[in-house]
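Box 3.1 A note on notation
Throughout this textbook, protein chains are presented in two layers. The first layer is the amino acid sequence; the second is a token string describing backbone geometry. Keep the layers aligned when reading.
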Amino acid sequence: MQLEALLKRGEDRAVLPLGSVEQHAYLSLAVDAILAEQVAVDAAEPLGVPVFPAQAYGCTPTYMAYPGTMTLRLETLLAVLRDLVTSLHHHGFRRILVVNGHGGNNGASSVLQELQARLPGVQLRWHNWWAAPKTMGFVREVDPQASHASWMEGFASTRVHGVQLPEGSKPVVDYVRMALMDPVTKRGYLGDGCYGGRYAMDEATLDELWSIAVGETRAVIEGPWL
């Protein structure tokens, strides 16, 4: 009923978070889904724009040697996104932002062009929240080697109860070599799964990072739209 009233008032924006369930070293398997939804909610709430529950599962075949990782085939993810966006369009949403939390999902971003050509009046945007310029710029300023499963994803919501994060840093991985590895070889090379950087960071720094990420995401929701 609330959504129906919102649409009748002319609000046609909506946010669809997209995540992944995969190894994140000492953090939750659901990091990407948790943070995509949380940053979307924090960004959209003051604007009165609805955020739908995260599509938690994404495309992450290279981590399948780590138990608990759950992957969709790319064609499955494309089909899911088609159905979800088509559903939003059916109800009257026309300006739709996908807030993505997982780099492996980027191969599915091309479906937005297909849908924009097929669905009348729809405008679609794709936002990798963690890689936005100001957000990643702050990460690089604090810890140039920070990456997957490091402190930059280690918020209170993604830490695992009873798990102590290691002290210190991990050297950054060799991305060129790693891109050639099958899942078993990749696990042997990565070990705990972190790509590099400090494992933990003080709460003040994490709060500042989150504020920047929320601000950048909110700016994308605000537009410009046509």
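The helical segments are 2-8, 31-44, 74-91, 111-118, 133-142, 175-178, 183-190, 203-222. The first strand starts at residue 13 and ends at 18.
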